[in-house]
Amino acid sequence: MPKIIPIYRQLFILLLAFVFTNKSSYCQWYDPEKVNKKAKRIYEEAYDLAENNQYRDAIAKIGKAIKIEPDYVEAFLSMGSIYAELKKYDSSVMYYEKAFTLDPKFSFNYHLPYSISLAGMGEFEKAALAIDSFIQTPGLNEQSKQAASYRKSTFDFAINYKKQNKDNYYFNPVNVGSGINSDYSEYFPCLTIDRKKMIFTRRVSRNEDFYVSDWINGKWSEAKAVEGDINTADNEGAQTISQDGDCIIFTGCNYQQGFGSCDLYISYRLKNGNWTEAFNLGNKVNTEAWEAQPSLSPDKRDLYFCSNRKGGYGGYDIWVSHVQADGTWGRPENLGPIINTSGNEYSPFIHSDNQTFYFNSNKHQGYGKLDIFMSKKTNEENWTTPFNLGYPINSIDDEGTLYVASDGKTAYYSSSRNSNDNKLDIYQIELNRNVTATRTLWIQGKVTDKKTNAGLPSSVELTEINTGRTISLLQTDEDGHYLAVLPEGKDYIFNVNRKGYLFYSDHFSIPVNSIDSFYTLNIPLQPIEAGASVVLKNIFFDNNKFSLQPSSLIELDNLVKLLNDNPKLILQISGHTDNVGKKNANLLLSINRAKSVVNYLTSKGIKKERLVPKGFGDEKPVASNDTEHGKSLNRRTEINVISN
């Protein structure tokens, strides 16, 4: 019986069974019993080293044995197996092929691991040919058939994927540099929306802590342990940071205050830059099961994570918890059978566009083991069929987490690709255009009281005009500061609300490839009192008409809420036009537009006595009518507080 180093342990068991059920395969010229005794002794030493995972030393020993016995077929096959285990697939293929050349019959059983190494190089067509040849072997046992059939399905998938996605994609992972990567392992990178700060996990000895690096002068600064009380003697890792950089949610295992083996915790950044002690997210999110790998939506209202809790579809599923009215996290919901399978799903990541979702799975059709997939949110509950990110981002090996920056195409991930001891470094890649997210810009500023200039904690809502879908709903901090993301290529309604104040409204059109990356908008809210007024910037009419456009309903419904929340409030609805056309026609148009707004409000149950429609035509311009921009500002609908 040949003694070949069983690095592919499960495969080797299958191959041993094959040899015993197909003894005619021994009809070859190579005879293991005639190998030089010294070479055999050195090979035996290499075998023991490999069995103890001392692969480098084993390679050196086998090399010595081959020098003594140049036609040592078993040694070449073992070299192929060791290099496959080290993921050095080009070397693995070379040694397998050398063995096949020396004695194709003796080596034929190893076309299965050989095909896998070919696939590891991306040579899926050659891998498919090798596996087809292996499957046709007479007397192949059932286990070998099943293993080969599975591999064939992954190779066929890879070949078809390449045909269907013909794109000259250049995969060029770039190490992010010595500021972040060290002699230790670094992984789970995440960034703030402006891409100027990276938080990641570093493992020193057996302890995992958070480190931070800043983007300064075109490179990442020397990473430092995150300051404050978030890092402890226990392990902290698998984290997500909010887009504004103000909170981190992470995985903590075996904490004293935990509900299970691993729970989710949150820490907040203080004004001095330090981080608070972590708080457990509670027994709705955490259970006695395993909860880990969180991803926070850009508006901080949805928390995606992985768990093997009861009620899932497989071993590990992806779940989501939503912020409740009282600010706590609600009971998680399973993302459903479109995302989750009977296998395992891990590493959820929701992009800053709050629509594009990345995760990995070992059950959705792919290249074998864990692949990374992308899905798009179609509404609050439904997702598109997951799409494999393709080779070479995905390969025959397990793929880990992927973090995609706000530009939608720059991604970060961890890999041991250039390490001899499986040490992880963080790399940057550019995604193929068929798996990118929507580029997101952001708007930031401060909400204040118009009279006192004091900061106001407020609600900020972004709604897509065309679909009416809420893109982001967030709360400012206690001082009124906010940051909201804006996926490009869409038009948005922007509303800011606080009880006791008139709401603020605006709208934005974010073109594709905008040269801007962020906007600053400070918002003074007016207290509800007689004489206060505000322009409703999201009330739209067709040119020279007074019928409301459907896109006005979002703003009008906010006005309904304002009136319902303030039952004594009486408003004047004022219509204004530019100076184009005759004055009498403009006056009539402005009156009719004000009446259209009143009619909508009364249709929603607001009493008519609380609403006074009035038109001013072009009598009260707020800008010059000499420019188109000025005319657009003059064409407006206002609300004026009569009494409250």
Gross CATH architecture of the largest domain: 6 Propeller
CATH C-level of the largest domain: Mainly Beta
How would you describe the shape? elongated
Query: Low-confidence spans: pLDDT under 50, at least 5 residues?
Result: 9-27
Q: Evaluate the radius of gyration.
A: 32 Å
CATH H-tier superfamily of the largest domain: TolB, C-terminal domain
In DSSP terms (H or I, runs of 4 or more residues), the helix count works out at 12
Structural domain count = 4
User: How many strands in all?
Assistant: 33
Largest beta sheet, briefly? 5 strands, antiparallel
Secondary structure: helix percent: 10-25%
How confident overall, as mean pLDDT?
Answer: 90
> What is the rounded distance between the termini?
95 Å
In CATH, the topology of the largest domain is named Neuraminidase
Backbone structural class: alpha+beta
- Proportion of residues in extended strands: 25-35%
Structure report:
The protein is α+β, with helices and mostly antiparallel strands and 644 residues long. The chain has four domains: 9-164, Alpha Horseshoe (Serine Threonine Protein Phosphatase 5, Tetratricopeptide repeat); 174-435, 6 Propeller (Neuraminidase); 439-527, Carboxypeptidase-like, regulatory domain (Immunoglobulin-like); 530-644, 60s Ribosomal Protein L30, Chain: A. The strands form eight sheets. Strands 2, 3, 4, 5 and 6 form a five-stranded antiparallel β-sheet that branches. The chain has a four-stranded antiparallel β-sheet with strand order 1-21-20-19, with no helix packed on it. Strands 7-8-9-10 form a four-stranded antiparallel β-sheet, with no helix packed on it. β15 (345-350) and β16 (356-361) form a beta hairpin. α2 (37-51) packs antiparallel against α3, α3 (55-68) runs antiparallel to α4 (73-85) and α4 runs antiparallel to α5 (89-102). It starts with 8 loop residues before the first helix and ends with a strand.
